[in-house]
Amino acid sequence: MSARADAIHALLPQTQCTRCGFQGCRPYAEAIAAGTSSINRCPPGGQTTIRQLASLLQTDEVALDPECGREGPAMVAYIDADRCIGCARCLPPCPVDAIVGAQRQMHTVLNDLCTGCELCIAPCPVDCISLIPRSELQPTSPEPTAADNLQRYEAHETRRTRREQERLALLAARKRRIDAVVP
How far apart are the first and last CA of the chain? Predict the structure, then answer.
């Protein structure tokens, strides 16, 4: 990645929410650096991030693109314990592993880690996940830093990639055994 993309990436909130239309903060930073995307597509970063990007890139500050969402208070996911069926569909999409639970067990959100990305909401078959303002938590929970978010996201992606490689290796071994038996 170019130094320009690195500098842009460093200014993003690292929520990995995909609301910008890219599959995470790094692809969005690369698109901005390449000139194929505008600086106003990050609702979690809001106007503050747009201002920082405009300063870095020596361009005009523009308003947040409403197609990407709107700026608001820091949010966290909340799982309604009475409605959660423990399907575990919310676990894989969480880019920072802020949801814990097991099959057929109630899941919970680790508030100090949750970025409010919303990616856990859509896969939930019983609509038991909603977002609440971080400020409403009792006791209040500090918002994770961009550096913490990035570190947790990279660990999540490393684990996901390793598991996929292991799955593919098992499938290849199974195919070799079948091929050895079938003439």
Answer: 49
For the chain, the farthest-separated pair of C-alpha atoms sits apart, in whole angstroms, at: 68
Per-residue pLDDT of the chain (183 residues; tens, 9 = 90+): 589 999 999 999 999 999 999 999 999 999 999 999 999 999 999 999 999 999 999 999 999 999 999 999 999 999 998 999 999 999 999 999 999 988 877 889 999 999 999 999 999 999 999 999 999 887 777 889 999 999 999 999 999 999 999 999 999 999 898 888 877
Cα within 13 Å of Cα(149), Cβ side? 25
Beta bridge partners of 41: none
Task: Let me know: does 112 contact 150? Beta carbons within 8 Å.
Answer: no
Which domains are present in the chain?
A: 3-68 (1.10.15.40), 73-183 (3.30.70.20)
- Which residues pair with residue 99 across a beta bridge? 109
- pTM here is 0.83
| The two three-digit tokens of residue 124, written as one number | 């939930």
| Bridge-based pairing state of the strands 75-79 and 99-100 | unpaired
Distance from C-alpha of 35 to C-alpha of 68, rounded to nearest angstrom = 18
